[in-house]
Structure formats: C-alpha cells, structure tokens
Design goal:
Chain lengths: 206, 126
C-alpha cells in the first residue's frame, strides 16, 4: 500500500467515525459515559484538518502524526489508546513510502503492544483489544497459508467482527465499564466496535 | 517549593480540589487541568502540559489524577517531557492534594512527598 492509498484510508476512517458517531455513542451510553462516538469523530475531524501536511510525510510519519493528533484531541481513553497504537505503528514504519503486508502485520503488532502497555490491559477484558488480537491472529494465519494480503485482511475482518460480538459475553475489567461488573454482560464494547470500523477503512483500500 | 497539578475529567472538580488545598496550604501552587478546552468532560493533553509548565517553579511538580484517560493522557505528557522533576502520583485525589500541599508548604522535597503520597491510599479513613 502506497502513501496515496494511506491518505485514502485516513479519509475513510474519518468518514466512518462520523457516520458511526451515534452508534458508538449509543453503545458507550450503556456501559460507559456515552462519548466514544463523539470522541472518535472529534479526533478524526482534527486529523482531516491536517490532511495536507500529513500527505507530505512518509508513511511512517504520517501514521505517527495521526496518532499524536488523536492523543491531543479525542479527550477520552480512546485518545491515548488509539493514539499510542498509531504512534507505535508509525514509528515502526518510519521512512517507508510503501507498506507491504508483512510490514503491516508487524506495525499492527506494535499497535497492539502499545494499547496493552498504555491500558495495562490484556485480551478478554472487554476492550478494543478483543477485536484487535483476534484480527491479528487470523491475518497472520491466512498470510502463512496463502500469502494473499487481500484474503488475509478479509480473514482479519471476520475475526475482528466475531471478537466484537463476543465482547457481549465478557465481564468488563478495564475502563469505565469495569465499574458495572456483571451488569456489563450482554453489551458490546464501544472500543472493540470502533476498531472494526477502522479496520474496514484499511480493507477498503486494498 | 513543589507545585501540583490536578487532572480531572471535570473542570469544576479540578478547580474545586485546587481551591480546597488553599485552606491549609495557601502558598503552594496548585494548577487545575480539568475537562476539555471548551469546558466539557474529558481530558486534554494541552491543558495538562500547560498546567505542568505553570506549576513548575524549579523544585518540581506532582500530578494527581482522577481516573481512566486522565491517567493515560498525563502519562503521555510526561513521556514527552523527560523532566525527572515531574511525577504522577498514584493516590486518592482529594486527600492526596491536601496532604501533599501541606507537606510542600513545609518545604519537603518532591521525592519525600511523592513517597508519602503513594502510601496514602492504604490509610484507613475509619
Ligand atoms: N485500560 C484500557 N485498556 C484498553 N482499552 C480500554 C481501556 N479503557 C478503555 N478502553 C477502551 O476504550 C473504550 C472507551 O473509549 P472512550 O473514548 O469512550 O473513553 P472513556 O472510557 O470515556 O474514557 P474516560 O474513562 O477517560 O472518560 C472502551 O470501549 C474500551 O474499548
Ligand atoms: Mg466513553
């Protein structure tokens, strides 16, 4: 994926966050403080305001700077979390103008490690990690079998959506939803959901 | 003298905690960093970094936070600063602010106040 495509991915992410703003906020209303959609839409609209300067950077810096914008504008936990994810991925991709699928997989792992460290969270705590980690595993597996980036991305999306659905079964132990304890069961995690939309944006340009 | 920053999702809460410390430690600088720039709930990277800057008179700054993104955003601000005289403290927000500022007014060092505050969460209220 080249730089021009990455800018289009960013555009798609912003469009998705605006489109899903209410849905994500509704999910967050049930087990959080009802701002996840607003937070993500605000962050990505600031990203779009800086689109021209991002477009001049190499792929790594572009993604890292996107993360920095999210950190300063999102305003909720998803700011430092997604912000760290993009920053770590961007740092890994530093200097690259073109991203191969194996590059993407490694950058994705850096993003996941970043979220885990920032949130002090692991899989199964009802967070964005519960769609990220299954996606990464499925992509890796499909890539080893077929070496086909598009197919691997599809496999990742399917796994991310399943992970997102499965957050309904989890008792939250991280973030605001953790205060609800058992009452968080039956409800889908907003962050695991927004991650699916972000991944869809990446897939749309492959 | 050690300065303090109070990070909260709520502008009013941060301001009130800062205000409350003046009762017994009027001379200590306590800068609130609550809510987003427009006053709504949330945590702002910019407000936190500005507040830390403002609170530092050279003897260092202790940052107290409420929860969630207040902690994570503060952590990111500190990572970008690399100033060892700025520390975030894991302690109850109100008691920590009161106890910490009184200690600072008495001339205690950053290290000492920091160490005592991290223990303050384990003191029973009754
Ligand atoms: N410690 C954590 N580790 C990983 N993910 C987390 C953590 N805390 C929250 N999340 C994710 O962030 C999502 C909520 O994002 P949102 O933008 O609504 O932040 P928030 O919970 O309102 O933040 P805050 O509590 O600071 O106000 C959750 O659905 C979850 O996926
Ligand atoms: Mg929220």
């Amino acid at each position: 994926m080249n730089k021009e495509k990455i800018i289009l991915v960013i555009d798609q992410m912003a469009v998705a966050m605006e489109k899903q703003k209410e849905f994500l906020t509704e999910l967050d209303n049930v087990i959080g403080d009802g701002d996840h959609g607003i937070n993500m839409a605000r962050g990505f609209s600031e990203v779009i305001k800086k689109r021209d300067s991002l477009a001049k950077m190499d792929a790594g810096d572009m993604i890292k700077n996107l993360g920095m914008i999210l950190v300063s504008t999102v305003g909720g936990a998803s700011g430092p979390l997604y912000g760290t994810a993009f920053m770590k991925a961007g740092m890994f991709l530093k200097g690259k103008e073109d991203i191969t699928f194996p590059d993407f997989l490694e950058a994705f792992q850096c993003a996941i490690d970043g979220v885990m460290a920032r949130g002090k969270a692991a899989e199964g705590e009802k967070t964005m990690l519960d769609s990220m980690l299954p996606a990464k595993r499925a992509m890796e597996q499909e890539w080893t079998i077929s070496g086909d980036g598009k197919k691997s991305m599809e496999a990742g999306l399917t796994a991310a959506r399943k992970g997102m659905e499965d957050t309904k079964k989890i008792i939250a132990t991280k973030g605001r939803a953790a205060y609800l304890g058992e009452r968080s069961i039956g409800h889908q995690d907003p962050g695991a959901t927004s991650f699916v939309f972000l991944l869809e944006a990446i897939a749309s340009q492959m | 003298m050690v300065g303090f920053v109070i990070v909260s999702h709520s502008r009013l809460l941060a301001e009130s905690v800062a205000d409350f410390t003046r009762l017994m430690a009027e001379r200590v600088t306590v800068i609130p960093a609550g809510g987003l720039e427009d006053g709504s709930f949330g945590t702002s990277y910019q407000l936190i970094s500005d507040a830390i800057e403002e609170a530092n008179s050279g003897d260092g700054v202790l940052v107290l936070m409420d929860m969630g993104s207040a902690v994570m955003t503060t952590e990111m601000v500190l990572e970008s600063m690399e100033n060892h005289k700025v520390k975030m403290v894991d302690c109850p927000l109100v008691e920590g602010a009161v106890a910490g500022t009184i200690a600072a007014a008495g001339g205690q060092s950053l290290e000492l106040i920091y160490r005592n505050l991290t223990k303050s969460g384990y003191v029973n209220k009754f």
